[in-house]
Write a structure and sequence with these properties.
It contains 5 helices and 4 strands. With 174 residues, it is α+β, with helices and mostly antiparallel strands.
Length: 174
Amino acid sequence: MRRVRTRPAAMNRKGPAQRQTGRETLAYTLAEVLFAVVILAVIAGAFFAALSSGFAVVQTSREDLRATQILMQKAEATRLCRWDQLTNVTFQEQYDPFSATNGTAGVVYGGTVSVGAATNVPSTCSYNSNMCLVTVTLLWTNSYGSGSPVAHSRQMQTQVARYGLQNYIWGAQP
């Protein structure tokens, strides 16, 4: 059998400049730690900004949807009114889904229902005097968070006929 020669143990040792212990290899410099803290701070700030922006978008969407509901409610209600009941009206509605728990009124929607001549019906039509245009306008202001108040408005129009749907509902001709 042939024997393999190995180096003596004294030759395998590293010099003082090449020597590394486990503690020194695992340590980080102060610059690395500060850089990691800055990165984590930016990520945390972006996360909370995105969260806040998401809540603002949800709140604005709720307000816009509620405005659409109010507009539809008022427009449908005018279709059921008798011809002699159609007049200009102002109204105010409040909305806050958490009003029962926090005691606030929430967003206040103010609006008008205005009745006028049906301008999109040609004047040569025989039924022109039996039609009117109802315009429902809604205004509200919100200020989500620390931002300045933003005014919003929505509008919806419908036509009502003198001998329309209300006569079938109420069974009376004016």
